[in-house]
Amino acid sequence: MWPTSGTRSAHTQPSSVQYQVSLTSLMTGTVSSFREKQKYLVIVVVVVVVVVVVVVVVVVVVVVVVVVGTAAAKVVILQSTKTVRCDWMPKTSGFMCLDALTRVYAFSRPLDDQVDFQNSPLHSKDVTPDCERMFETPEPSGKSGGGPAEVKLWSRQDTERAFLNWGRVTKDLFFFGQYSEITMSKALYDPRVSKWSLDFRLRHGFLGACSITNVCEFYAHGSDGSKTLLWTNKYQVVSVDKKTRQPARLPAWFKEKYQGKGFLTSAMVLRPFKRPGHTYCHPILVQHSDIDEFGHANWSNYVRWSIDALHAALLPDKQDNNVAKNANSGGSSSSTNLGAQTKGGRALRGITMATVKRGLAKFQASYFRECLEGEQVEVHVWQDGAPLEVCCGLVKAGEDICQVKLFYFPDEDEGECL
């Protein structure tokens, strides 16, 4: 029996061992499967965290780039705006010609085609109706295919309809510029102020024996109906005989009709200034393009020549051979200004290119003689002591033909010359 029993035990023992082994294997497999799942779960979590971190980093980088780029763009725009704002734009010759053409247009439109200036905010209460003209930009009609309104002009036979009877008084007389004082506002330099469309007001100021003083103003016409003053031109013309080209008295009928109707109490007094012994001289040859319909150099060219001479004087004197002329010697001799940093040398005391870039605030021009195509003109520039003022004397054959004084914006406006 023992063998049988032993045999049976032998058969029973392996069964129990196999059970234990199977249970152990099951438990081991379960633990291994859990660990693998846990490992996969950790990997998934790590991947998700990495992805989130990468996304966050990318978003942060994009935000930083956008912020920095926007800031840099703003700096560039501000610097560019400052440059455009501080440089003289538009050029004086450009807006002076616009000024003159607009005045011609004003004198050419009939009186019954003017705006209702009595209700206009630009109307001056101290000017009679026939001595003030205003031209406002018309509002768009909104009709498709519609062109500009027909411009009404007076004819020489219909002289009574013209402003100041201009057609009649100019039959026998020329009117040459004698004096002009143009004052620019800071809005003219501000790129945020639209320079189109423009409103224009012309007022008669004073009537002399052979001179007429008027004042014209140009306004920026805002889309909201606002008007911003850009520049004012106070100018005086003298009547000239067409044959002799010499000053001539205004006709009696003209004086009778317009004497005392202007808003000024006196004519513009011209006080020539003395040219010193030491100046910077800039030579000019009058070109064909400088000549206007009267056969002489246009009034705007004298100012342009003066500004060109000033800029030439402020150029670096690399060879130290600036043309500094002695007025007492007739402008024929030159002297070398040793140690000068600019070509203007000691003729310019205080003004710099940085001052010029702040913008021209005002200029005054007095016209004494005319100059013709092919003639040589010398432009002398100097300063009398005021750091923001430059005197310019234009000389032809030893005789002063024009004097110009330039005024620039003060130093406190350097950061914001609007």
Automatic annotation (TrEMBL):
SUPFAM superfamilies given in the database record: Thioesterase/thiol ester dehydrase-isomerase (SSF54637)
Keyword Transmembrane helix among record annotations: yes
Annotated organism of origin: Elysia marginata
Region (Disordered): 321-343
Membrane-crossing residue ranges in chain numbering: 40-73
Biased composition (Low complexity): 321-340
InterPro entries: HotDog_dom_sf
Name the UniProt record assigns to this protein: START domain-containing protein
